[in-house]
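Q: Could you write out the predicted structure for this multi-component system? I'm mainly interested in how the pieces pack against one another.
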Amino acid sequence: MDRSAEFRRWKAQCLSRADLSRKGSVDEDVVELVQLLNGREQYFTTSSCAGRILLLDGGINGFEVQKQNCCWLLVTHKPCVKDDVMPALRKATGDAILKFEPLILHVQCRELQDAQILHSVAIDSGFRNSGITVGKRGKTMLAIRSTHGLEVPLSHKGKLMVTEEYIDFLLQIANQKMEENKKRIERFYNCLQHALEKETVTNSYPKKKIKDKNNSSYTRKKKRNPEAAHDKCITEENDEDCENDDDPGISITIFPEDY
Amino acid sequence: MDRSAEFRRWKAQCLSRADLSRKGSVDEDVVELVQLLNGREQYFTTSSCAGRILLLDGGINGFEVQKQNCCWLLVTHKPCVKDDVMPALRKATGDAILKFEPLILHVQCRELQDAQILHSVAIDSGFRNSGITVGKRGKTMLAIRSTHGLEVPLSHKGKLMVTEEYIDFLLQIANQKMEENKKRIERFYNCLQHALEKETVTNSYPKKKIKDKNNSSYTRKKKRNPEAAHDKCITEENDEDCENDDDPGISITIFPEDY
């Protein structure tokens, strides 16, 4: 079976299976994006979380919370206030941690080239920790991730280590991050639609394909700040995928533009 | 010029340039790893940070700290205590945030296959947010990242929002994370050395190359917990690169093993 037929077969099987997540359905804020991707022959999503605020009760001995072993005191995909969190937090017996986790989306891609296009759109939309995985038999997956989290220890051995005023302050920040995450998802959706339209046009003129690839979907401006890009789909130079530009604290070497 | 010669040329240029980081040198905890990679013809590192505790003073209006615009009150690659942090924290006039950032390493790879091997080793060593970027002209970069961070808002408009006791508690956690990060770097170094040795043996017998690729470096056991792997270089099935296994809260579809 050729790769393309194999991909179609796996896509069909994958999408026909039951949703095995705890929630059992795709998060509301990411439904449209998931549908857009699954509606294209070159992609299908294998896991998604739109973004959430989590309150976890970790073991007191292990400093790193293993999500599968710890108690989930609260999970919400919507903004929340102190009165949502405090009752849950009072149930903690170990080391409770509040986390904001932005969008995580795993997309299987037919070809490396399909993953490259999607990766480029993800980076441009602010999901800078995205990356491709290529399996031993060529299975190509893009993980879409943001840098945009929050992880705050709140209690130790069941004892609250912060004030309620701090919880209030913290939730305002978490809610703002959730709002920003939602904007990035919308930006991603818009930019992806734009890129896929270009792809479709390109594929209608196969002779021009390579030329168009270099001059349209892949044309980038050296502009890294996703905040400045908004919904304009300004594509960026993401070849380096480095924290370089932001961060003079990292030991770096700069590449010339033309590599 | 063929790809291989082009890669060599860029590697030479890149490594001969001055270190443009704020610190101006490679972090001590990652020097050996960087040397190991740069000593191999198929890799070179373009940026690195071994892991650090950061205290940033962000603007009070923007909730997301832009590292290049904000004030760095403290940066350390070593464990620290309350008395290191408090004097720096008192200088905050905006919204100060304490972060622990684990290893970040960007490695340019000659071929996709070289990136796949390194990616596999990174995942197996606990750097689960690692991912490949393939540029428009085929430039292949692996970003090695961990899930293993901390981001804690501490003050608002210069006012400290937590107690000194909490700072003490928080730094214990940050220091533990730094210690665990160091272990992962060591594990990564050992596993990489092991994988590269196998590669060398494989390349000495070119006829067996493909067979060996499938049966040695790429042989994996379905074992995801990096804590359990220690330095044993148990390789894992990382094709999926999903948070699936850990996290029943994410909407997922599971792949069969043989894809």
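A: Regarding packing and overall arrangement: Chain B is about 35% helix and 20% strand.
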